[in-house]
Write a structure and sequence with these properties.
Length: 1013
């Protein structure tokens, strides 16, 4: 609004202040009061109000009450009070008017007080007095002045219509016309009467006093009237002349005009030139510039602007989030788009945008995965919210696929069971197959079997075939070989015409099943078939060669066995040491002892790492003994004892050494050896054999008394009770072998152990008792008898007892008890399977005990093996990866997680993906890290822990990419939605606090979207 100077506002009509002639004719016989009055009047006119007031006050008191002097003095005294801004000034004016209702000064009083307050810009008080002035007493000029000032006062007090009437009459007045026209137009502008306002302002376009102000108003009028072309023309004209501080707002109006005309390219530079209100942009400012960039396909800049619209709930925000989502899609950042569409879908300002955003959110969740919520739930929620959507069928079709994509087969089966249809029934069988495979791959074989049986009912032949195949595999793993074989054979019959690569190894499976059933002749053609298929994996072909050799070996077709074993050796295949050993044994059975010796020596000398070296040395010793080459036999046995002191063959070797000494007449060496066996391996069969052999030596020496004294020292020998001992155990053993009555078996074995705690068969009895309990899953009861077996040191039953007792402790995660047993098993076991079992569980046990270096050592031992199951290989690699991570060795951890990822499935795949993304983040490869996270979320978010943890990592990547909105949005969602994962929530909270603290130092305002779920 244009304001006037105080000089203009204080102008008064002094003619009204003229001294009344009646006063000059009045005489009281004393001219002093008149002189005093004239003197005071001069002071008053000189604005010496304080001094003048005193004289006027004295005169009003001294003059007769109804005299002209009293009236005039009272008037001027009251006016002085007004000009001196005294508290009782208005009261004095009112008193004067009350006492002098007919005074000609009454109108002057109203006028002058109004003018006084007007000069002070006190519109309300001036208006109060102007309204009391009688216009008929005023001259034409005075009336114009009164109208103008009252119009201005009315305008100032927002009495627009009354003010407009006052100014209307003055628009053509030579003195007040320009000002009146301006205010008249301004009031019309304020009342949004833009036509009237424009007409008024147009008259002043060339007026130097009003040109600038009028131009601004016209610019705004054009904009608000939608006359954007005129607005742009005037705005561009103004920008050439206005001061820089005014250019910001004019640029904003011009930019918005281009925006409304959809001339986005032209709008951008003007929108950018806007400095903001108090140098701060609001959400609408960011939205318009972002949308202009969006329409120009400049999505990067669009994102930068839309991203700044956070922390609010309004229509602008909803639009911004929606277009932010579309911008992200256009730069192929689907995960970021997911968050934006989610935010837009949760606002109700524009219901069409809400639905479109919800649809995009649902589809992107399906494509990219969603760790915040099950993808299937998101899709189902969309259908519930928008049952009439044109995309209803499309989304419905995605639901089951989403379950499958996320490997949430349980959820898929539940959904299909609730939504019955012909199509869904077909899908249900397929999903049952997938669920079975999932359970099978996590070694939950029994749980998997019913799903394969269910899937066999599918009318889709391929699903039915696959289900039968996996059912057969599951039955095989459960050692139900007859049922497994029946399935495999039936499937092979059906598949004669089928070339599906999934069934390419069916002959291998059939061969193995026959092999397990000890039907070796039937196994041979199947293994032979596989051994000739070079298109199959190398490991399969080579294993088939071994099993072909074993089958020939078992059927005593030793020459064919040798040929098969030799083929494997010629390939330098996995298990070549075993094949070489078996060749030796085959030659032995055909009495080709020289060839046998040669083959066994190759096992000892040509294979740096082999679990069969002690076996080979033992067989060499036996063969040399058979050939009566005692020296060579002794050398073989000595080598075994020296290099493999913990071998299960040790007590057997000692027995044979003792016999060699005895046969050569070295009786003292023979006795020492037999006594060593009895001392080191009490209660073992070798110990009893050693005692028997020692007896023969003592007889030859004629020293029976010494023999008897020695035997009395042996707790496991009782000469007098041996018959009762043997009879009691024989009865117990018979029940163990033949009976199915658990209580009867246990009672019989316990009876023997109680009666003969140091009996001849105490080892075997305790082993049988432990085995009985173990097979019946009575694990706590099995501990004592197995422990008793192990107390006797290494013996023929200790290996099996170590295996099963360690299993019991591992099942209860009693690692302190299990680990020593596993270490002993590794040291003493003869079976490669048991050694591998011990090493793999030592690896796992040490890891769980946080002994990471030992866990790594055992994992590396396992990986050195040639023939290794894929699952165990992955276990070893992941233990190294995890342990390296815990021991602050990121290089090793990253290398092994990368290896694990290649073959991993299920949760292990999710874990390896997470850590590979983690290491990318640590290297500031944020884009690459997010690509891996998105892969994890898309395919493995059913493993929720890793899905949620990866989302925190994604937030850190966003922050590394300087996308503060996405980072804070994701972290807020994790904190609010996943309280069950306390460690992840804590990590998210720390990350969010760090971001806020960092941004606060930068002076940024972080107001992340509040989750509205």
């Amino acid at each position: 609004m244009k304001f006037f100077s105080s000089r203009f506002l204080c102008t008064c009509s002094l003619s009204l202040l003229g001294f009344n002639s009646a006063f000059s004719q009045q005489s009281y016989g004393d001219t002093n009061p008149k002189a005093a009055f004239q003197n005071a009047l001069r002071l008053y006119q000189s604005k010496a109000y304080s001094v003048a007031q005193k004289t006027f006050e004295n005169l009003s008191i001294e003059a007769p009450k109804y005299s002209s002097l009293h009236s005039e003095a009272s008037y001027y005294e009251a006016m002085c009070a007004v000009f001196l801004n005294q508290k009782n000034a208005e009261e004095k004016i009112k008193l004067f008017i009350t006492e002098n209702p007919t005074s000609i000064q009454k109108n002057n009083a109203f006028w002058n007080v109004g003018n006084y307050y007007f000069s002070l810009n006190n519109a309300a008080r001036s208006l109060k007095w102007f309204q009391k002035v009688a216009p008929e007493t005023l001259s034409k000029e005075q009336k114009n002045e009164l109208n103008f000032k009252m119009g201005y006062a009315l305008l100032s007090t927002k009495n627009y219509e009354l003010a407009q009437k006052r100014f209307s009459s003055l628009r053509n007045n030579p003195k007040y016309g320009n000002d009146a026209s301006y205010y008249y137009g301004f009031i019309a502008y304020t009342l949004e009467d833009y036509d009237t306002a424009e007409a008024s302002f147009k008259k002043l376009e060339n007026n130097n006093s009003y040109a600038a102000s009028v131009s601004y108003h016209l610019l705004d009028i054009y904009f608000k009237s939608g006359e954007f072309d005129r607005c742009i023309a005037l705005g561009n004209q103004l920008l050439l002349t206005v001061k820089s501080r005014e250019q910001s707002m004019i640029s904003k109006i011009v930019g918005e005009s281009y925006f409304h005309l959809k001339k986005y390219k032209e709008a951008i530079p003007f929108l950018k030139a806007y400095k903001g209100e108090r140098r701060k942009w609001n959400h609408n400012d960011y939205y318009q510039l972002g949308y202009a960039y969006y329409k120009q396909n400049d999505f990067k800049n669009a994102i930068n602007n839309f991203n700044k619209i956070i922390g609010s709930q309004n229509e602008v925000s909803q639009n911004a989030y929606y277009h932010l989502g579309e911008s992200y899609l256009n730069v192929l950042k689907k995960a970021e788009a997911l968050s934006a569409f989610k935010a837009a879908s949760e606002m109700d300002f524009d219901l069409q945008i809400k639905e479109d955003a919800a649809l995009n959110y649902a589809k992107l969740s399906y494509e990219e995965g969603n760790p915040f919520q099950s993808v299937a739930d998101i899709l189902q929620n969309f259908l519930k919210a928008y049952p009439t959507s044109t995309s209803y069928q499309e989304i419905n079709n995605l639901i089951v696929n989403s379950f499958i994509q996320q490997q949430d087969y349980v959820g898929a089966l539940q959904y299909l069971s609730k939504n019955k249809s012909k199509e869904n029934t077909t899908l249900e069988f397929e999903v049952a197959l997938y669920r079975g495979i999932q359970l099978y791959q996590t070694n939950q074989i029994e749980e998997a079997l019913p799903f394969f049986t269910q899937a066999r009912q599918s009318k889709n032949q391929q699903i039915g075939f696959k289900a039968r195949y996996w059912e057969a595999e599951a039955l095989y793993q459960l050692e139900k070989y007859d049922a497994s074989l029946a399935n495999f054979l039936q499937l092979k019959k059906i598949l004669k015409w089928n070339s599906d690569p999934e069934f390419s190894e069916i002959n291998y499976a059939i061969g193995y099943t026959y092999f397990k059933l000890q039907k070796y002749e039937q196994a041979i053609p199947y293994f032979e078939n596989i051994s000739k298929k070079e298109d199959l994996p190398k490991e399969i072909v080579e294993d088939a060669l071994i099993r072909l050799g074993d089958s020939y070996y078992a059927t005593k077709a030793y020459q064919k066995a040798i040929i098969s074993y030799q083929k494997l050796i010629d390939r330098s295949g996995i298990g070549a040491d075993y094949a070489q050993y078996q060749i030796g044994m085959s030659y032995g059975f055909t009495d080709k002892n020289d060839a046998k010796i040669n083959a066994l020596q190759k096992v000892v000398n040509q294979y740096e790492v082999s679990d069969l070296k002690d076996d080979a040395l033992f067989q060499l010793g036996n063969t040399y003994t058979k050939l009566k080459n005692n020296r060579a036999a002794e050398q073989a046995f000595d080598q075994l004892l020296e290099k493999y002191p913990n071998s299960t063959f040790t007590p057997k070797v000692l027995v044979r050494q003792g016999l060699l000494y005895y046969n050569e007449g070295e009786n003292e060496d023979a006795l020492n050896t037999f006594k060593q066996i009895a001392r080191l391996y009490p209660n073992s069969s070798e110990a009893f054999e050693a005692v028997s052999n020692a007896r023969n030596v003592y007889i030859d020496l004629g020293n029976i008394e010494e023999y008897v004294n020695w035997v009395k020292e042996l707790k496991f020998i009782n000469i007098t009770n041996s018959e009762v001992d043997n009879t009691t155990f024989a009865a117990a053993e018979k029940k163990y072998i033949a009976s199915t009555n658990l209580e009867d078996i246990v009672a019989s074995l316990v009876d023997y152990c109680t009666k003969f705690p140091e009996g001849l068969h105490i080892l075997k009895a305790n082993f049988y008792l432990g085995k009985t309990y173990f097979n019946q899953k009575l694990y706590p009861e099995a501990i004592a008898p197995y422990s008793r077996v192990l107390e006797e040191g290494q013996n023929e039953y200790s290996e099996a007892a170590l295996n099963e007792l360690s299993q019991i402790y591992l099942f209860d995660e009693a690692f302190q008890k299990a680990l020593p047993l596993l270490k002993r098993l590794e040291r003493e076991a003869n079976s490669p399977t048991n050694i591998l079992y011990a090493q793999s569980n030592l690896m796992q046990g040490y890891y769980k005990m946080q002994a990471y270096e030992l866990a790594i050592a055992y994992a590396k031992k396992i990986l050195l093996r040639e023939k290794l199951d894929t699952l165990l290989e992955n276990d070893a690699k992941v233990i190294i990866a995890r342990s390296a991570f815990h021991t602050n060795d990121p290089t090793t951890a990253e290398a092994f997680y990368t290896e694990v990822e290649k073959n991993a499935t299920g949760e292990l795949k999710a874990e390896s993906l997470y850590f590979n993304a983690f290491f990318k983040n640590k290297k500031a490869a944020y884009e690459s890290s997010n690509e891996i996270v998105q892969k994890l979320i898309a395919n493995y978010s059913s493993y929720k822990y890793w899905g949620v943890k990866s989302y925190v990592l994604m937030a850190k990547n966003y922050y590394g990419l300087q996308d503060v909105y996405q980072a804070t949005y994701v972290l807020e969602n994790v904190i609010q939605n996943f309280k069950e994962f306390e460690d992840i929530v804590k990590e998210a909270q720390i990350a969010l606090e760090t971001i806020k603290a960092t941004e606060a130092k930068r002076g940024s305002s972080i107001l992340p979207e509040k989750n509205k779920n």
